Amino acid sequence: MGMLAGKRALIVGVATDRSIAWGIAQAMHAQGAELAFSYANDRFRERVEPLAASIGSKLLMPLDVTVDAEIDAAAALVKSAWGHLDILVHAVAFAPREAIEGSFTANTSREAFRIAHDVSSYSFTALARATAPLMAGRNGAMLTLSYLGAVRSIPNYNVMGPAKASLEASVRYLAADLGPKNIRVNAISAGPVRTLSAHGIAGFRTMYGGFKEVAPLRANITIEDVAGTAVYLASDLSRQTTGETIYVDGGFNILGLPVAEE
Ligand SMILES: NC(=O)c1ccc[n+]([C@@H]2O[C@H](COP(=O)([O-])OP(=O)(O)OC[C@H]3O[C@@H](n4cnc5c(N)ncnc54)[C@H](O)[C@@H]3O)[C@@H](O)[C@H]2O)c1
C-alpha cells in the first residue's frame, strides 16, 4: 500500500517532463494516488497529454489560472468525475521577462508587478477557494512551490521575490482559515532546479552552477528531491503540519555567507 493510496490529486503546473509538478506527480502516482492534470493553454496540451497518459491519468483539463471561469470549470470537472479531492498541487509562476533581469527598481512596472502577483500568488488562493469544498470531510492537503527570493534579495529574481513573499503569507492565511475544515496548506521552498521557468530568469545558469559548491549537502536539487517532501506533506504523516514553508534546498537557506571551499 502506498502512502497516498486512495487519495486523488489535482496537479496544476506541468509544462514539461522537467517540471517540478511532473516530479511530484510521478512520486504521488508511485505512492498510489490517482491524478488529474491541467495545462495552461493549447500550446502545453500536447506536452502534458502524453505525460498524463503515461501514468494512467484519465482526467485532463485546460486551466489558465488568471481566468476565474477556467478555475470554476476545473473544479466542476473534478467534482463531476470524482465527487471529491484530497490533494491540490499548485506549481505555477510567471513574470514578464523584462521584470526578471537587471534593476529591480527600474524594471518593476505596475503591470509586471500585477501579472507576477496574479499568476504566481493570487492563483493559489483562487484555486484553494474553488477546491476546498471538494475536500470537505477528508484530510485535504494543498501544496504550493516557493523560492528563497521570498525572504532574501536574489539578483534578477526581482518581482518574483515579492510575489513569492505574498504566496508564503497566503499559505499562512489559508492554513488558518481552512484548518478547522481539516485542510492543511503548506509550501515547499525549493533550491534551483533546471526547468522551463527557471531558464527565464537572467543568470540562472550561474546560480545553478555555483549552488552545489556551497549548499551544505553539496548537491543540486532535483524534481525527485522536491517530490519526496511533497508526498510527505500530502500524506497523513504530516497531519499536524500546516501553514509552513519547508525548504528543500540542501540547507542553502541557513547560510549567512555562502562560500565555496578553496
Ligand atoms: N525551478 C526552480 O528553480 C524553482 C525553485 C523554487 C521554486 N520554483 C517554483 O516551482 C513552480 C513550478 O515551476 P518549475 O520550475 O517547475 O517550472 P515550469 O516552467 O516547468 O512550471 C511552471 C508552470 O507554470 C505554468 N503557468 C504559467 N502561467 C500560467 C497560467 N496563467 N495558468 C496556468 N499555468 C501557468 C506553466 O504552464 C508551467 O506549467 C513555480 O512556482 C516556481 O516558481 C521553481
Can you walk me through this structure?
- It is a single chain.
- The protein has helices at residues 20-30, 42-54, 68-82, 104-107, 110-131, 160-178, 204-214, 223-234; strands spanning 8-12, 34-39, 59-62, 87-90, 140-146, 183-190, 245-248.
- The chain is α/β, with parallel strands linked by helices and 262 residues long.
- The chain has a single domain (8-251), classed as NAD(P)-binding Rossmann-like Domain (Rossmann fold, 3-Layer(aba) Sandwich), CATH 3.40.50.720.
- Strands 3-2-1-4-5-6-7 form a 7-stranded parallel β-sheet, with helices on both faces.
- Helix 2 links the parallel strand 2 and strand 3 (59-62).
- Helix 1 (20-30) crosses helix 8 (223-234).
- The model has no long low-confidence stretch (mean pLDDT 96).
- It binds nicotinamide-adenine-dinucleotide.
CATH topology tier name: Rossmann fold
| CATH class call | Alpha Beta
- Shape by Cα distribution: globular
Q: Specify the helix fraction band.
A: 40-55%
What portion of the residues fall into strands of 2 or more residues? Answer: 5-15%
Strand order in the sheet with the most strands: 3-2-1-4-5-6-7
> Could you name the CATH homologous superfamily?
NAD(P)-binding Rossmann-like Domain
Mean pLDDT across all amino acids: 96
Number of strands: 7
Overall domain count: 1
- Helix/strand/pairing class, anyone? alpha/beta
SS field, number of helical segments:
8
Q: Quaternary state, please? A: single chain
Small ligands present: nicotinamide-adenine-dinucleotide
Low-confidence stretches: none
User: What is the first-to-last residue Cα distance?
Assistant: 47 Å
CATH architecture: 3-Layer(aba) Sandwich
